[in-house]
Structure formats: structure tokens, C-alpha cells
Amino acid sequence: MSLATVAAQSADQEIPYYESVGNECAMFEHAYTQRLPLLLKGPTGCGKTRFVSHMAAKLGKPLFTVSCHDDLTAADLTGRYLLQGGETRWVDGPLTRAVREGGICYLDEVVEARKDVTVVLHPLTDDRRLLPLERTGELLEAPDDFMLVVSYNPGYQHILKSLKPSTRQRFVAMSFDFPPPRVERDIVARESGLDPERCSALVNLAASLRAMKGQDLEEGVSTRLLVYCATLIAAGMPIREAARATLVEPLSDDADVQEGLMEAIQATFG
After folding, report:
1. Residue 147: inside a domain, yes or no?
2. How many domains does the chain have?
3. Looking at the domain assignment, is residue 166 inside a domain?
């Protein structure tokens, strides 16, 4: 039996830090008030999940985050009968809870889930806003304060793992990318406690490493990894050691590629 990895964020949680780089916050609010599902596209670690957490807290709505994977089934989202205390009881999945209670259900990397997941989502992503539960015989109508948000990384997915046009066209969509250098510097400094000057050097290094995407690297260095690196440096770890642990080892196992990355780090920090 496959289980969804779910993180629940309460409505009264402190608003997570997020630095807006465009009209994404306004777009999210409009989609929410107009009861429209939202699709976020962008590279790994560019801030999609933090953005959703920020907006859920800003709107004062509970957030149900599901990290999708290739064993995730529709039953993991909707629910199943489980044996509890000698009795068989129906237990709602995170999607069903969000529909019953109201809130935002966020499916991270939705294309990683099995194909039957999108079938369940379709009735929720048109004007019906319905969730049929075949096993209980229920037909749940989503309340006004329910919102469905999904995300994926279009640059990383294989052709066999992509959203069908019939699914994509059910969503309002926004593209995300890494923040502009000044904004990324401020994000890294705030999240790590490292001084902005050294964060600027890290952001410049990230630009050099991201230019290697598609050549030596499958993915460019994420803002998340920059925060990890800055956090280690702020804690007293030598720059080269922190950079190897966060900007080299996670990106490649190839010794030649790692050597090239370390050369870029040496050129930046000396």
C-alpha cells in the first residue's frame, strides 16, 4: 500500500517569508477568489513550494501539501478503508480533507504520480468542482474556500512523464524561475544569516553553474542549495568545504564534472 507524504500547515501559522518578483501573489489571490485551479511550472528549488506556503498563510487557509511520487495513487489522495481497533473505517486522504474542510491542496511534482491521479483531479478542475468517492458512494462539492494547486518541473521531466494537454488546459498556469540576482541575494542572506556581500558572491557563482545546465549538469544549482551553502558558511564552515557539500556533491557524481565545479568555485572565492 502506497502512502502519500503529506505536510499540513495550519491556517494560523506565521506567514513564511517569500520575496515577490512579479505579479505572482496577485495572480494567486485572483485564482483563489475566482475558484480556479493553479499550475506552477519551474525548476527544482526555485521557490514554488515556499510561494504556496506563503500564500496559504497570507490567505489564512490550511494547506495540505502532497509530495508526489511514482507509487502515488488516487486512493492515497482520496482515502481508503483501514482496519482500526478491530473495525474497518474510512479514512479521508489529504485531497478529500481539503475538499471537506476547505483549504488549499498542493500536489508537488504532480507528474510523478500515477495516471489515475489526474483522472480524479479532472472533476475538481472545471466548473463542477466535484470529488467523487466511489468507495463510499459520496459526491463531494468543493466549498468556495477550496483551491487546488499543482506543480512540476518541465525541464526535468521525461516525455513519458508529462501532463496531457487535456489536463494542462484545466489550470491557470504560471512559470517560475530563479529570482533576479539582487532578490536572490536578499533571500539567501535572510534565510541563512550570512552577510549580503558574501551572499552576492554565491549568487554570482550560481549563475556560472546554471550556465552548465544541459551540458555537464542535468539541473542548475537551486536557490535552496545556495541557502544551505550560506548557512554552513555562516556557521563557520570553510567556504570550499561548504560549497563542495552543497553545490558540487548534490549536482553530480561524475568526477570530471565535480572538478569543473570546484574550479568555478575556486575562481569565485580564490
Report:
1. yes
2. 2
3. yes
Residues 166, 77 share a domain:
yes
**CA separation, residue 143 to residues 33, 107, 148, 223 (Å):** 12, 19, 12, 35
Give strand ranges (E) for 38-86. 38-41, 63-67, 79-84
pLDDT tens track for 124-150: 999 999 999 999 999 999 999 999 999
Contact 88, 135 (CB under 8 A): no
Residue 2 lies inside a defined structural domain of this protein: no
The β-bridge partners of 10 are none
- Domain boundary (132, 149, 175) is at 175
- Integer angstrom CA distances of residue 6 from 68, 81, 117, 202, 260: 9, 18, 15, 32, 38
Q: Which three three-digit cell numbers place residue 201?
A: 558572491
Is the pLDDT at 158 greater than 70? The verdict is no
Range of the domain at 244: 181-269
Q: What is the pTM of this model?
A: 0.88
